[in-house]
Each structure stands twice: as C-alpha cells, then as structure tokens.
From TrEMBL:
The keyword Glycosyltransferase applies. One of its GO terms (molecular function) is ATP hydrolysis activity. Coiled coil: none annotated. This is Mannosyltransferase. Keywords: ATP-binding, Glycosyltransferase, Nucleotide-binding, Transferase, Transport.
Length: 272
C-alpha cells in the first residue's frame, strides 16, 4: 500500500494544529493550540492529559473527522482531506449493530469495501479466532460481556487492514482485570503488525504499559503538548506484571509529576 516516495513518511503528522470551536453564544473556544505530533509506521503512541483537554479533538483531526482551524494534518505525506481512509477508529463506546450477529458485525467493514459475502465471512472467522470468539459468532451484541464486545470491536477495526489504528479510551469502561487482559491482547495483535497506533487514555499506567511514546497535553483551553516521553521498556511486554518493573515505576513517577500539575489546573478551573 505504501508507495516508495512515502515509505518513510509518518503515518500521522500534525503540524501546528489548532482547533477553534464556535460556542453557542457565538464566541470562540480554542480547544487545542499548535499541536505537533509525529507517529511513524509501526509505533504505538499514547496521548494523555486531563479530562476535556482536547485528546479526542487531536484524534479527530488525525482521523479527518475534524479539520484543523490552523495548521495541517498529514497522513503518509498527504494532507488529510475528509475521512482518513488509512485509519480505523475505535471509540470508548463500541459501534456494534445490535441486530447483527458477531460474525456479521465483523464482516461488515469488508462487505462495505466490496468484498464478497463468503470471503468476508471467512476473514471474519479468522479474526474471531484471533480474538478468542470463535464459539460466539452467532451471538448478538446484547448477549456478550463487556470484554467480548471489546474483542468484537478489535476484530472490526483490524479486519479492514488499516495502516493506522486510532483508539479513543477504548478500554476505559471495563473492569480492571478485563482491561488488563484486553491491553495484553491488543499488544499481541499489534506486535509485528507494522501498524501505527494512536491511543488516547486518561490512565497513565495504561499509556506507559502499552506505548513507545507518551505525549502529555496540558490542561485546556488552548491545550498544548507539554512533554513527550520515550518508553523504552523491552518488548514483548507482559502487562499483568509490568507495573512492578522498576523502570515502569520510575517512568510513572516522572510523568505523573508533570501530569499531576495539569490535572490540578483542570480541577482548579472547574472549582472557580
Ligand atoms: N464540537 C464541539 N463544539 C464545541 N466545543 C467542543 C466540541 N468538541 C469538543 N469541544 C470542547 O473542546 C474541549 C476538548 O474536548 P475533547 O477533545 O473532547 O477533550 P478530551 O477528549 O481530552 O476529554 C472541551 O472543552 C470540549 O467541551
Ligand atoms: Mg475524549
């Protein structure tokens, strides 16, 4: 899919991206200002920051769901115009269709791309096996646990073989144990896939455990990138044990020291 001239281009590059919203009163609100972000193919980058600081806004600009008011969003060297076709999106709330079975939900993305029903179903079964749902293909979404719904969503996002996965707090509604299992499974699938991931979370533990790089946004309005941290913990990682690793503990201490200030600013602004 990658042409020679864009082989070394970032999967996502935001250059000085600012997003201004018009408020219902006709005023203006700067959600984020001058965001620079580069995500190379095969890299796992997390964005953390306090609630409302503009994490989803940044992801939406990468996804092409929102155009920057200033600056430019590029994907593999080309401006993002309209929905970014190189990317799949995974939200906190899954987007499963309640009237379709697990198999049909997972097949849908391929069918919409013109793949035949039989071929799409075969590929969907391959993905359901990968995420441990082979015995549940005939179930409807309401018959699934939270973890199973997430597995279905992961299969949905990956089956179309995107170059980029954009994940907006995908596991935040899960209980802690299910969440760690899902994080582990995500890394297993991502490992060696060559795909770029931008992962939004407000959970610093999750960001460090998963990522190659953690990008910290300041409290809004006009949120900016305040720090970037390379996470050099060796891979493959076992997320059920990584939180006890001294290197993890040290990184967490360092990044939390900075994030805490931004969280405090957000609370102070709300209390005012
Ligand atoms: N469509 C919109 N119109 C107006 N304001 C918005 C819109 N989307 C987001 N905002 C505001 O921009 C800020 C950043 O929002 P968001 O990116 O959702 O933050 P986060 O994902 O970090 O919680 C918030 O103050 C939010 O209220
Ligand atoms: Mg958000």
């Amino acid at each position: 899919m990658t042409s020679p001239e864009t082989a070394h281009a970032p999967a996502i590059q935001l250059d000085g991206c600012t997003k201004e919203f018009v408020t219902p009163q006709g005023g203006s609100y700067f959600a984020v200002k001058g965001i620079d972000l580069t995500v190379m193919p095969g890299k796992f980058v997390s964005i953390v920051g306090p609630t409302g600081c503009g994490k989803s806004t940044v992801l939406n600009m990468a996804a092409g769901l929102m155009a920057p008011s200033e600056g430019e969003a590029l994907s593999f060297g080309a401006p993002v115009v309209g929905v970014n076709r190189r990317a799949s999106y995974m939200f906190q709330q899954d987007a499963l269709l309640p009237w379709k079975t697990v198999l049909d939900n997972v097949s849908l993305g391929l069918i919409m791309r013109g793949v035949g029903k039989k071929e799409a179903a075969a590929e969907a079964r391959r993905w359901l096996a990968k995420v441990g749902l082979s015995n549940f293909e005939d179930r409807y979404p309401h018959q699934l646990s939270g973890g199973m719904r997430k597995r279905t969503s992961i299969a949905q996002a990956w089956i179309v073989n995107p170059d980029i996965l954009l994940m907006d707090e995908p596991f935040s509604a899960l209980d802690v144990q299910t969440r760690q299992i899902m994080e582990n499974e995500l890394l297993d699938i991502w490992q060696e896939s060559g795909k770029a991931v931008i992962f939004i979370t407000h959970d610093l533990d999750e960001a460090i455990a998963l990522s190659d790089e953690v990008v910290l946004l300041s409290a809004g309005p006009a949120s900016q990138v305040v720090a970037r941290y390379d996470i050099t913990l060796p891979r493959p990682r076992n997320l059920l044990e990584i939180r006890d690793d001294p290197q993890f503990v040290e990184l967490h201490r360092e990044i939390w020291g900075r994030l805490r200030d931004e969280v405090a600013k957000t609370y102070a602004a709300k209390a005012a």
